[in-house]
Write a structure and sequence with these properties.
Elements (H helix, E strand, L loop, with lengths): L6 E8 L1 E5 L4 E3 L4 E2 L3 E5 L6 E8 L7 E4 L2 E3 L4 H20 L11 E7 L10 H15 L6 H11 L11 E4 L12 E5 L7 E6 L10 H11 L1 H24 L2 H20 L10 H17 L4 E5 L5 E6 L3 H13 L6 H4 E5 L3
Parallel strand pairs: 7-9
Antiparallel strand pairs: 1-6, 2-5, 3-4, 5-10, 6-9, 7-8, 10-11, 12-14, 12-15, 13-14
Helix pairs in contact: 1-2, 1-3, 2-3, 5-6
This protein binds ligand 2P0.
């Protein structure tokens, strides 16, 4: 009798926010970056993607349901991930004839975020990390998070960093085949468990210039970008790793803010220029500067990705100061419900 059983595995993957930013590809096809990057993984209690991967010979074709809606699975990036996962499963099957032939069965991937889609938070990192790990679990692949990061990277660069909790580096690597362009844990969340992040959702609008095309334009046209890659990022990576090792918040904060500023400066230096931050983003920068000046020490650090939303890092011991400043400010912004507007979160264990 034909095997029509449904095989299934579920997993979750967290969102990560870079403190040294990935921006630029040296190989767009393999999704290899021009520079290393480093991120903090946020708690899954607040922000995560849950993905169930299943396969069955009773299914008709590969299908992806994203937050309840059918989504495109035919993109080159998704296909690269699925091809790699299937070929690893096929290798296991060819070594052990007793294994069911899952690699030839159509897949159903059901993916959901626990944060409002309308919040405009980048979800491709958690999305691809969850897709890759759920399918790897379904296929019972003996792969470490770093090995899976090589696959998730091909879905979306930042996704490779969402396979770990805590503090994570994506080493840019130098090989043409990309096999050394992978994520590694710099420190577990337990190393510095008082780290917190506040996400200020400034706008839920879809960004004007996608990260993928924006970074290509920057690589092609920005002179400042060359300096960022040659000098700024290598120095920031080194200082950031030392700051994390020493749990030196002032240093961590300074590099975080400087690196965000450097990234947005290269965006402005792109021709034509790319602007992700808006007036509200800039007000958040000023608010952080004011909090730090009033405290007489660094208690908060801002960072912005390819959009206007601010992420503020701070330590638990300073929460009264940070929340006291930002909550009232946010409550004045009309049209926003609290839950979709601000997320207070910790670092993922
Ligand atoms: C980062 N960003 O390091 C940087 C900071 C945005 C600004 O990674 O083309 O969606 O899919 O590899 O990963 C956004 O870029 O780009 C990103 P692709 P991705 O988090």
């Amino acid at each position: 009798m034909a095997d029509t059983k449904v095989y299934r595995a579920s997993t979750t993957a967290p969102v990560n926010i870079a403190v040294v930013k990935y921006w630029g590809k040296r190989d767009p096809k393999l999704n290899l970056p021009t520079n290393s990057s480093l991120s903090v993984t946020l708690s899954q209690d607040d922000l995560r993607t849950l993905t169930t991967a299943s396969c069955s010979s009773a299914y008709k074709e590969d299908t992806l349901l994203l937050n309840g809606s059918p989504s495109d699975l035919t993109g080159a990036r998704t296909q690269a991930c699925l091809r790699e996962l299937r070929s690893r499963r096929a290798a296991l099957e060819s070594n052990d004839a007793s294994l069911p032939k899952l690699s030839t069965m159509p897949l159903l991937l059901v993916s959901e975020n626990n944060f409002p889609t309308a919040a405009g938070l980048a979800s491709s990192a958690a999305g691809f990390a969850a897709l890759v790990r759920a399918t790897a679990d379904l296929y019972e692949l003996p792969a470490s998070p770093t090995e899976l990061s090589l696959i998730a990277r091909q879905g979306s660069g930042s996704a490779c960093r969402s396979l770990f909790g805590g503090y994570v580096a994506w080493r840019h690597g130098s090989q043409a085949d990309g096999l050394d362009s992978k994520a590694v844990e710099v420190a577990p969340a337990s190393h510095w468990p008082t780290m917190r992040a506040l996400i200020l959702v400034v706008s839920a609008a879809k960004k004007g210039v996608s990260s993928t095309s924006g970074m290509q334009q920057t690589v092609a046209t920005s002179g400042l970008f060359k300096q960022r890659i040659a000098d700024v990022v290598p120095a920031n990576m080194e200082t950031m790793e030392a700051a994390i090792a020493a749990k030196d918040f002032a240093k961590f904060a300074e590099v975080t803010m400087r690196d965000s500023n450097s990234f947005h400066a290269t965006c402005a230096d792109t021709y034509p220029p790319i602007f992700y931050m808006n007036d509200v983003s800039r007000a958040a920068v000023r608010a952080v500067e004011a909090i730090n000046a009033a405290a007489g020490r660094t208690v908060a650090a801002y960072t912005f990705d390819a959009g206007p939303n601010a992420v503020i890092y701070y330590l638990e011991e300073d929460k009264e100061t940070i929340l006291g400043t930002f909550y009232p400010l946010l409550q004045d912004t009309d049209g926003w419900k609290d839950g979709a507007k601000v997320f207070k979160t910790s670092v993922e264990l």
